[in-house]
Amino acid sequence: LGIGEDGHFASLFPGMPDLRSALDPAASQLAAFVPALAGREPRVSLTVRAILDAKALIISFEGEDKRRVFERALEPGAVEELPIRAILGQNIVPVDIYWSAA
C-alpha cells in the first residue's frame, strides 16, 4: 500500500461518500465505489475488510511530505481524517513500513 499526501490509501480518500463503511474492518462489503471527486476518475477499491484478509501488509512511501503524513497518522485521530489510520491502528494483520527519503 502507498500513502497519499492527504492520508489516503487504496483510493480510499478523505471526504468520499461512505468512507466510514469502507474503513470498517467489521463491514461485510469487500469493495467500495469511489466516485469522481476533485478531478479524479471514478474507481473501485478494496475495503479495509478485504485488505485485512491478507497475511501481511506492506506500506511503502517516499519523501518528507509523506513521512510527515505517516507520522500524523500514528497520532490519535479520526480514520476519516487520515484513512491510513485504519491500517496503522489495527491489530489483525502485521504491517511492515518502508520509507525512502528520495
Detail the topology: elements first, then pairings.
Blueprint: H1 19-23, E1 31-34, E2 43-46, H2 48-51, E3 57-62, H3 64-74, H4 85-88, E4 95-100
Parallel strand pairs: 3-4
Antiparallel strand pairs: 1-2
Written description of the protein model:
The chain is α+β, with helices and mostly antiparallel strands and 102 residues long. Helix content is 24%, strand content 20%. It is built from four helices and four strands, in the order αββαβααβ. The strands form two sheets. The protein has a two-stranded antiparallel sheet. Strands 3-4 form a two-stranded parallel ribbon. The chain is globular, with a radius of gyration of 13 Å. The chain starts with 18 loop residues before the first helix and ends with a strand.
